[in-house]
Design brief:
By secondary structure, this protein is mainly beta. The chain has seven helices and 28 strands. The strands form seven sheets. It has a four-stranded antiparallel sheet. Helix 4 packs parallel to helix 7. It starts with 5 loop residues before the first helix and ends in an 8-residue tail after the last strand. About 3% of the residues have low confidence.
């Protein structure tokens, strides 16, 4: 191999998959120097586009947070559209890191682990979000808390809501990669006091409170200067909080029950009501693009997530419903329903919360168990077997989130005992690409 010209070795590298390319860097000093060449950024980009689903790439790079990046035309392929979306980002994407995060996420539960407990809430925790090394929680004690995920120290306690805080979402810091140490700058919270508050994550101060709902706010989603909120008065509202006089931009009418979950992806809004009505709306004008009703067994909706054209809805009756469609193909949407399967728990059929990141879906259950599934891109085979089981206390899991803190994959849970638990997995040196 030492006798081969560097140009030939370089050409061979372009035929490798991601894991093989990463291992080739450890062969010798000469090969490692080749990896430091600028054109290897393009090589890792090509590998990501070849091996990773397009919506996962958009999630990991953060380009799904820009809802007007590129206008799709019929002659443009999905791959070309995605490349244009990514190229329009105002920061440089570390493609090797994107591949590494995607690869590592599949090893949740498979590598050595460490669990850190975050104690301080007085009462149940209702929602939890990861932000680099930090964790944000909210709960029945009407507080929002920001934690150091490594030491377990509470960095800030945000007070101002008059009743329990039911939901939070984090806004990505403009011009900053999602893989940075502090990827988010704002916290948006929804409360039982019917209000929405916007907080500066670094200073811990409330920048703005929004009033317009008449019942408790169950779900919030934020991108750039837009907030989507869903509440118990059977309404979802769209706010532009960067205006001089922030107010409701428009309401999404047509819901016939409590709006339990809202999500925003590009210029589309997804909402799910407690009686199983799933709807897709246009962010531009609030037009209803598509809707479908699912059976909840009369027990309501526990949670829902949206990525690309796919929404996953978790019902309290113990089923996961997948709705794959768009405004262009609503009539041909794929609608599948799956039972929650797991091992060793009578609470399997009582899912309480859901999270989606990379190729993994996490379901928190009634008795402290989190079941993690790996998506296979084949709806006939999804949710047939469990990827791993995470034990997180003995009480109900109200919220779950997944991410990567730079050292390895992370899963964080929070529940009725008022404790948030961070589960980390550390890759073996030989296993990490």
């Amino acid at each position: 191999m030492n006798g081969l010209p560097l140009e030939l070795i370089d050409s061979v590298f372009w035929w490798l998959d991601g894991v093989s390319l990463a291992k080739s860097r450890k062969v010798c000093r000469q090969w490692r120097e080749l990896h430091q060449q600028p054109n290897y950024k393009s090589l890792w980009k090509e590998i990501c586009f070849k091996e990773i689903d397009k919506d996962i790439i958009r999630e990991l790079t953060g380009c799904c947070n820009s809802h007007s990046v590129y206008e799709l035309r019929s002659q443009i392929t999905q791959k070309d559209k995605l490349k244009n979306d990514v190229d329009a980002l105002n920061y440089e994407v570390d493609w090797e890191l994107v591949y590494k995060q995607w690869y590592r996420s599949r090893h949740i539960g498979k590598w050595p682990s460490l669990t850190t407990e975050l104690k301080g809430h007085n009462g149940p925790i209702w929602d939890v979000k990861l932000s680099g090394d930090r964790v944000v929680t909210c709960g029945a004690d009407a507080t929002i808390r920001i934690w150091d995920g490594w030491t377990g120290q509470c960095l800030r306690i945000l007070t101002g809501h008059l009743r329990g805080v039911l939901c939070i979402d984090l806004r990505k810091r403009p011009g900053v990669s999602p893989s940075s140490e502090k990827p988010h700058d704002l916290i948006v919270s929804g409360s039982q006091d019917n209000s929405i508050s916007i907080w500066d994550m670094d200073k811990g101060v409330c920048l703005l409170s929004l009033f317009g709902h008449t019942h408790c706010v169950n779900s919030v989603s934020v991108q750039e200067g837009i907030i989507i909120s869903g509440a118990d008065e059977t309404s979802a509202k769209v706010w532009d909080f960067e205006q001089d006089s922030p107010d409701i931009t428009f309401s999404l009418s047509g819901h016939d029950d409590w709006v339990k979950s809202v999500s925003l992806w590009d210029n589309r809004i997804f909402s799910a009501t407690d009686n199983g009505l799933m709807s897709l709306w246009s962010l531009d004008n609030g037009e209803l693009l598509a809707s479908v009703r699912i059976s909840t067994g009369g027990k309501g909706i526990a949670g829902a997530v949206l990525r690309g054209d796919t929404a996953l809805v978790l019902s309290c009756s113990g089923r996961i419903t997948a709705w794959t469609g768009s405004e262009a193909s609503a009539d041909a949407a794929v609608l599948r329903s799956f039972s929650i399967v797991g091992q060793g728990s009578s609470g399997i059929q009582q899912g309480e919360c859901i999270a989606l990141r990379g190729p993994l879906v996490a379901i928190g259950t009634l008795y402290g168990t989190v079941f993690v599934y790996k998506l296979k891109s084949d709806w006939d085979k999804e949710f047939q077997e469990i990827h791993t089981v995470v034990r997180s206390g003995k009480c109900r899991v109200n919220a779950v989130d997944m991410g990567d803190d730079g050292e390895g994959p992370v899963l964080v849970t929070a529940g009725d005992d008022g404790i948030a638990r961070i589960h980390r997995w550390f890759p073996h040196c030989a296993a990490e690409p």
